[in-house]
Design brief:
The complex is a heterodimer of chains A (about 1050) and B (about 130). Chain A has about 1050 residues and is an alpha/beta fold. Helices cover about 40% and strands about 20% of the residues of chain A. Chain A has 30 helices and 38 strands. In chain A, helix 4 crosses helix 5 and helix 9 packs across helix 10. The longest helix of chain A has about 90 residues. In chain B, the strands form two sheets. In chain B, strands 2-1-3-6-7 form a five-stranded parallel β-sheet, sandwiched between helices. In chain B, helix 2 packs parallel to helix 3. The two termini of chain B are about 20 Å apart. Chain B has four helices and seven strands, in the order E-H-E-H-E-E-E-H-E-E-H. Helices cover about 40% and strands about 20% of the residues of chain B. Chain B is α/β, with parallel strands linked by helices and about 130 residues long. The chains are: A alpha/beta (about 1050), B alpha/beta (about 130). Chains A and B meet through helix 29 of A and helix 1 of B.
Chain lengths: ~1050, ~130
């Protein structure tokens, strides 16, 4: 069954537009399954499915839990839910308001990447924020295709989401939205359509381009891995032939970078393979065994990428450290060739998905949670040093207790593995540990490592073993090595049997006898048969150096001959060498011949016997017989001695050389460490520089703020000086902070009093409660006002105490102001005096008028009437005056007139109604009216007989506008049909009420008794409802 | 010679009932034809607009409102008037500060005398006008 491409699309603000365009540009029969994830508000119905349904012929449905994803279908995430996918089946989880998820796109993309790997396609469209970036990274890591909405021609409405993904370097294609469908279809069509056997030349070109541009040699990477990554890139750029892709790489340097990045991609997690880490945890105590406070535990993490592995190990070590009472120092070197990834490692900040495997306690202890990411704590970070290092190219670290190299070896060819494992052996201390990834092992190097935990890939360094020396030449030259496609390394020539055959043939052509082939350093490469006569294995660890193997007598000559042959490039012959063998002496001739094969050079050493083996004596005789000449003998003896000394010297030199070599190896490693530290420091320096720049900016801002502050201060100072209102600022302890100059009028203040409590200062105002009021204002935050008098007795001030508020409405002190209200007070006094005087005068005037009337008029009805009316007026004036000329109560006025006429206990007079306050004009006029009615009742009406009664009631009518209605009802009096003849009283009531109060009054006889109805409009001009001082409008009181 | 007040059409503007009634009685007793008394400004202005008067008696303060608009309207029509006021000096409308004024309480003769004066003065003007 062909693989189903599943496309995940994430969008947020501005996404609807982009999605519509996407679907409109998508041709039918595209074979894609599409899942749309957007940021939806939780409680609202979403119309998205409908909107998208109109943009495409494919069915668009809201995703349901358990839906099997099918081709040519669109699934949309509904509100208040989270979507994941497993075995191409959608899983929907509802969310409540409490667990609103902020990154639904990341969650779905992660799930899609893990479920579908290279069949996943992720697209991020318009939106704000960063949702989708980490999800796309996961898709890319698992081999899928990643796309972001680009900004040429048409732009996304909100570019933040796609830009964030592009900035993270994990987007394969950045395109305008209408171009995306076409590219996806092209990409999917190319699945599986590749050359079965990649052509070697194209591959070689690609390796070369990578090496030239990035400096790294990928020819040692496993073919399959390399090819898979290359194929993926080819799919992305839509080429099917490797040669075309190689040509593209040559044209476009950016594509080389893209390929490089893809090659480096690895899936990263904390505590990846939890079981393996747990096993490692078990071994941690052994790392610390025998290490005290002065020692250092050293760890090397090879291929650390974004740092999760290094920090995971750091956590394990840290935990153990904290249990120990004398912990040693811990140093972790973490290396990789991917600088960008290491930048992430140095930043030490990870998204939630990556710390999934970290237990909650560890998460709490070792990470700081900051806005959706987890940052590694400082103590952990300081344990790790990250630096750029190629394990193929650069010298290794040394004296390590643990090397963790997980998922690097599987990517490289066995020949390179064969170089790296011994490297690790060198780097580890005796008994050090090697931690590899699953499916990696050291089975080919079982002489170097024992297996402690086969399942979890934990190995231990074997100590008593001959390690081949490090290829120092390679490290020292530090040049990128030629990748000829051939396999290199010590003994490399050995594996190319055709070359050797040719060399052997050459020698055979020239010589028949015994020979040995060595390289330029004297390492033996090839033995003919029969070399045992001349060579024997040296005591000690196996040593391939020819000089070490040479039998006594041969060594010096061999060495010097080889040396000379190297220098001159010519054949060198040494004759008459006495070789000690089996108690005898063999005279030997050696010839050293340089042989050049291509770029390689080797030396053939040929041994020729000169006669049979002789005994010592025979030799001595031979020598002796050769020349009895004493001089010759002497010279020969000296020569022997010299040879012997030379031999010793050479041996000492060899020893010294050995030591130098060891030191050199050591120095190289130390250098490597220093290099790492240096890089780390460089990074720190860069960080410091950028912090410095930030500080500069902040500094500039602060300078500007200070300038503003200065200006504001000057303004304030000037304001202070210019004001004429005494103002004093106090802090929370009522200590003077500052005051305006006029304050000295009220307090004995001098400038030096700043910093003293106000209560210490002599005040010139009469304000005993000042301190109490200030404390109250400070505590409660309310303004206090008080009228206070100056001690000079003449001036009055309105003292106001206000809370002094600072940021967040905090009260930090109080401020006092004093406004001179002397004039006001004086005016008030004057007014009071005047009002009192006026009252007095008016009342007096009426009294005087009454008195005049009394004296002037002769006794009679007219006089009585006059005096009575004057008294009624006078009484009302008195009531008004007592109320400050504002109002008088209706009930009181009526009672004032009727009470004198009532029988004891008021049996014949009833007065009832709601409390009404009359304004002066209405009060005075109604007084007169009531007076007339009362006197009439007393003279002729109900109150003129004992059984008569008067009921006065009033109410507020409910009409609009409401009116005051007063009812005067007499009963039981002498029968009448009116108020008697029209006179002052009738006219006053019937005409005056209308004239003066815009009201109405009727006087009639009801069943022979007088009834008077007075109606006055309830306007505030005339009256208010309620008791004295109670200001209720008449409308509100209407029943 | 004193003008006769008989048949004089007089507008009375006064908000205090008892005082208004008194003025009305005094004028009627002299033979005037009294329009009003009117207690409020709107009615007073209305009366001026729709009627012809020979003279007017104006209370300076009508329930808190000043009499100025009525005085101005009458002045425009060349109708003479006299103020009555309970206040002292300096409370009259400024442009009419020189007009005759009666202080409350006043006697009958005072009112009639003042009225007679203003009518005569107006008449002189009119005669003067008609001569030329």
């Amino acid at each position: 069954m062909p693989n189903l491409p599943i496309v995940g699309i994430g969008a947020s603000a501005g996404g609807v537009e982009a999605l519509e365009q996407f679907f409109k540009s998508l041709p039918p029969n595209n074979g894609l399954a599409i899942v749309v994830v957007t940021h939806l508000p939780p409680d609202r119905e979403s119309m998205l499915s409908e909107i998208l349904g109109r943009a495409t012929r494919m069915p668009v449905i809201d995703a349901r839990d358990g839906d099997q994803v099918e081709a040519e279908h669109v699934y949309v995430l509904p509100p208040s839910a989270i979507l994941t996918i497993r075995e191409a089946r959608l899983q929907l989880r509802r969310t409540g308001p409490a667990d609103r998820e902020r990154a639904p796109i990341d969650i779905f993309f992660h799930s899609l990447a893990e479920d579908q790997a290279e069949h996943a396609i992720g697209i991020v469209l318009s939106g704000t924020g960063h949702d989708g970036t980490l999800g796309l990274k996961a898709i890319k890591e698992h081999g899928g295709l990643t796309i972001a909405q680009g900004s040429n021609v048409t732009r996304p409405r909100f570019a933040e989401m796609p830009s964030s993904a592009v900035a993270a370097g994990i987007v394969d294609l950045e395109l305008p939205v209408d171009c995306i469908p076409e590219r996806i279809i092209g990409y999917v069509r190319n699945w599986g359509a590749f050359d079965a056997e990649p052509r070697g030349d194209a591959l070689t070109t690609i390796y070369a381009l990578l090496r030239t541009r990035t400096g790294h040699d990928f020819s040692e990477y496993k073919d399959r891995t390399f090819q898979r990554r290359v194929q993926r890139r080819m799919q992305v750029v839509q080429t099917t032939k490797l040669e075309d892709y190689a040509a593209l790489l040559q044209r476009e340097p950016d594509e080389v970078n893209a390929l490089f990045r893809d090659l480096l991609i690895g899936v990263t997690d904390f505590f990846r393979d939890a079981a393996a880490f747990q096993a490692l945890e078990g071994q941690v105590p052994k790392l610390f065994e025998g290490n005290g406070a002065d020692d250092e535990v050293r760890v090397w993490v090879v291929g650390c990428a974004t740092g999760e592995e290094a920090y995971s190990i750091a956590i394990l070590l840290r935990e153990y450290l904290e249990e120990s009472s004398t912990p040693p120092k811990v140093q972790i070197f973490a290396t990789d060739i991917d600088e960008t990834a290491m930048g992430v490692a140095r930043a030490a900040r990870y998204p939630a998905s990556v710390v999934k495997q970290v237990s909650p306690e560890r998460l709490r202890r070792f990470f700081v949670h900051e806005a959706g990411t987890y940052r590694v704590v400082k103590e952990l970070r300081e344990m790790c040093v990250f630096s750029s290092h190629s394990v193929i190219r650069d010298p290794p670290f040394s004296r390590l207790d643990l090397i963790s190299c997980r998922n690097l070896l599987i990517y490289v060819k066995p020949s390179l593995q064969a170089q790296i494992i011994p490297l690790f052996h060198y780097s580890l201390r005796p008994g050090g540990y090697l931690f590899l990834g699953g499916s990696e092992n050291v089975s080919r190097h079982s002489e170097l490592f024992t297996s402690l935990d086969r399942k979890n890939r934990i190995f231990r360094r074997r100590n008593l073993v001959a390690r081949p020396p490090l290829p120092l030449q390679r490290f020292l030259s530090n040049l990128p090595r030629e990748a000829t496609g051939s396999e290199r390394g010590p003994g490399g020539l050995v594996q190319r049997s055709d070359t050797l055959r040719r060399v052997a043939n050459t020698i055979v052509e020239h010589f028949a006898p015994t020979y040995v082939i060595v390289d330029e350093t004297g390492q033996t490469l090839y033995f003919s048969s029969g070399t045992g006569k001349y060579l024997q294995p040296a005591a000690g660890p196996p040593n391939r150096d020819i000089a070490a193997m040479a039998r006594p007598g041969l060594r010096t000559d061999l060495r010097t001959a080889l040396h000379r042959a190297k220098e001159t490039g010519q054949r060198v012959v040494r004759d008459r060498i006495n070789v000690q063998i089996n108690g005898g002496v063999q005279i030997v001739r050696i010839a050293v011949e340089p042989v050049i094969e291509g770029k390689e050079i080797a030396y053939g050493i040929v041994f020729t016997d000169r006669g049979p083996i002789r005994t010592e004596d025979e030799i001595a005789d031979a020598e002796h017989s050769q020349g009895q000449d004493a001089t010759v003998q002497q010279i020969e003896k000296e020569l022997q001695e010299t040879k012997g000394r030379l031999q010793s010297t050479i041996e000492e030199l060899e020893t010294a050389n050995e030591e130098f070599r060891s030191s050199n190896e050591e120095l190289l490693s130390v250098n490597e460490e220093l290099q790492s530290t240096n890089e780390e420091l460089e990074t720190s320096k860069e960080e410091l520089q950028s912090v410095n720049e930030e500080l500069q900016t902040v500094n500039n801002e602060l300078s500007a703020k200070i300038d503003e502050l200065d200006r504001a201060n000057h303004d304030l100072t000037n304001l202070f000086q210019s004001t004429r209102i005494p103002t004093i600022f106090l802090d929370r302890n009522l200590v003077i902070r500052s005051f305006t100059p006029p304050s000295t009028q009220l307090f004995n203040l001098i400038p030096g009093d700043r910093g003293r409590p106000l209560t210490d200062i002599v005040s010139r105002i009469d304000y005993p409660d000042l301190e109490k009021d200030m404390r109250r204002v400070f505590a409660a935050g309310e303004v206090a006002e008080r009228s206070v008098r100056h001690a000079n007795g003449n001036d009055y001030y309105l003292a106001r105490i206000l809370p002094y508020r600072v940021a967040n409405d905090q009260i930090d002190g109080v401020l006092l102001t004093f406004v001179d209200v002397t004039n006001l007070v004086v005016a008030e006094e004057q007014q009071k005096v005047l009002a009192a005087e006026l009252s007095h005068r008016v009342k007096n005037t009426l009294a005087v008028v009454s008195s005049i009337a009394e004296r002037t008029l002769s006794d009679g009805e007219a006089k009585t009437d006059l005096i009575g009316r004057l008294h009624a007026l006078g009484h009302t004036y008195g009531v008004l005056s007592a109320a400050g000329w504002t109002e008088a109560g209706l009930r009181e006025l009526i009672l004032a007139e009727l009470s004198p006429l009532a029988i004891k206990d008021g049996g014949n007079v009833q007065v009832d109604g709601p409390p009404i306050m009359l304004k002066p004009q209405a009060a005075l006029f109604l007084t007169l009216a009531i007076h007339e009615l009362s006197t009439n009742a007393a003279k002729y009406g109900a109150l003129s007989v004992a059984d008569g009664r008067v009921d006065v009631t009033w109410s507020i009518t409910g009409d609009s506008p409401p009116r005051l209605e007063i009812n005067w009802q007499e009963q039981g009096g002498p029968k009448t049909d009116g108020l008697g003849a029209p006179g002052f009283g009738t006219e006053l009531i019937e005409r005056g009420i209308r004239f003066e109060l815009q009201g109405e009054a009727t006087l009639e006889a009801v069943n022979g008794s007088l009834s008077c109805k007075i109606m006055i409009p309830g306007s505030p001009q005339h009256l208010t409802f309620g008791s004295p001082g109670g200001r209720q409008r008449i409308e509100d009181a209407a029943s | 010679m004193t003008a006769t007040l008989d048949g004089l059409r007089v507008l009375v503007v006064e908000d205090e009932y008892l005082v208004a009634v008194l003025i009305e009685e005094i004028l009627e007793s002299a033979g005037c034809i009294v329009t009003g008394p009117v207690a409020r400004l709107p009615e007073a202005l209305d009366a001026v607009d729709h009627n012809d008067f020979d003279a007017a008696v104006l209370d300076v303060n009508l329930a808190g409102e000043r009499i100025d608009p009525v005085a101005q309207a009458l002045s425009r029509r060349n109708v003479p008037f006299v103020f009555v006021t309970g206040y002292g000096e300096g409370v009259l409308p400024r442009e009419f500060a020189k007009r005759p004024r009666l202080c409350k309480p006043f006697r009958m003769a005072e009112l009639l005398g003042a009225l007679s004066d203003i009518v005569k003065a107006a008449g002189d003007v009119r005669c003067a006008d008609s001569v030329t």
